[in-house]
Design goal:
This protein has a single domain, classed as NAD(P)-binding Rossmann-like Domain (Rossmann fold). The protein contains 8 helices and 7 strands, in the order E-H-E-H-E-H-E-H-E-H-E-H-H-H-E. It has helices at about 15-30, 40-50, 65-80, 105-130, 155-175, 195-205, 205-215, 225-235, and strands at about 10, 30-35, 60, 85-90, 140-145, 180-190, 245-250. Strands 3-2-1-4-5-6-7 form a 7-stranded parallel beta sheet, with helices on both faces.
Length: about 260
């Protein structure tokens, strides 16, 4: 049920952190992985890791906030692979400022990269992901939210708003495209040890101690902790699962 052989998975922001953790999971499950990101050198390194696992992987450069760039990314992926089965909307950014200090341009930047991009990628991917209702396998969309989809963060209002929007966008897609045999689900990562969260630890005093104290698992997550749930949501094992938002946070979000 978890076999992805013969499947093509496109992961935005797949050249590092959580995105690469999921991409490596797909490769181990047999998928051909397309890494879509801005940093070509970083993407080349990710592709080498994926190829070492047997995936016929390659990279595409994309600006996920630009409609034309997103359409070109999807077109190139389908042209090279002949199909698209799994779309992971993972690209993201954060600007850590309280509401009163956040400029409108900064607000738009975060929402464009985190939320609008997921809409653009899903819309562009739709013609290639849809399947007949009686087909043996449906297309899969996995949107990456956050714990802040569930509750706010005083130091990240735009990020929190964008990730809350991801959950509602996921539900809308799941409802609208069920007739097209597309399952759409969201993953809500907790505090995962990545470049972005290392920067957060530098910017937010006491964050590391608070995270460890609140997380029942007693540690920060690692990118590979996302691989299992991503493979599940990308595979036939989740063919009757749609519109969900699954926390992967070591229990952080269940604590009072």
């Amino acid at each position: 049920m978890f076999d992805l052989k013969g499947k093509v998975a496109l992961v935005t922001g797949g050249n590092g952190g959580i995105g690469l953790g999921m991409a490596l999971g797909f490769a181990r499950a047999g998928a051909r992985v397309v890494v879509a990101a801005r940093d070509a050198a970083k993407s080349a390194g990710a592709v080498e890791q994926l190829k070492a696992l047997g995936s016929d992987a390659f990279a595409l450069e994309v600006d996920v906030s630009d409609e034309t760039s997103v359409q070109a990314m999807i077109d190139q992926a389908v042209q090279r692979c002949g199909q698209l089965d799994i779309l992971v909307n993972n690209a993201g950014m954060n600007i850590r400022k309280p509401v009163e200090k956040l400029a409108l341009m900064e607000w738009h930047s975060v929402l464009d990269v985190n939320l609008t991009s997921a809409f653009l990628c899903a819309r562009a991917g739709y013609p290639h992901l849809k399947r007949p209702r009686d087909a043996s396998a449906g297309g899969k969309i996995i949107n990456i939210g956050s714990m802040t989809s569930l509750f706010g963060a005083s130091f990240a209002p735009a990020y929190s708003a964008s990730k809350g929007g991801i959950v509602q966008l996921t539900r809308s897609i799941a409802s609208a495209w069920a007739v097209d045999n597309i399952q759409a689900n969201a993953i809500l990562p907790g505090w995962i040890d990545t470049e972005l969260t290392r920067q957060a630890r530098r910017e937010v005093q006491g964050l590391n101690e608070r995270v460890l104290a609140r997380t029942p698992a007693g540690r920060w997550g690692r990118p590979h902790d996302l691989a299992g749930v991503a493979v599940f949501l990308a595979s036939a094992a989740s063919d009757f699962v749609t519109g969900t938002a699954i926390p992967v946070d070591g229990g952080y979000s269940i604590q009072a």
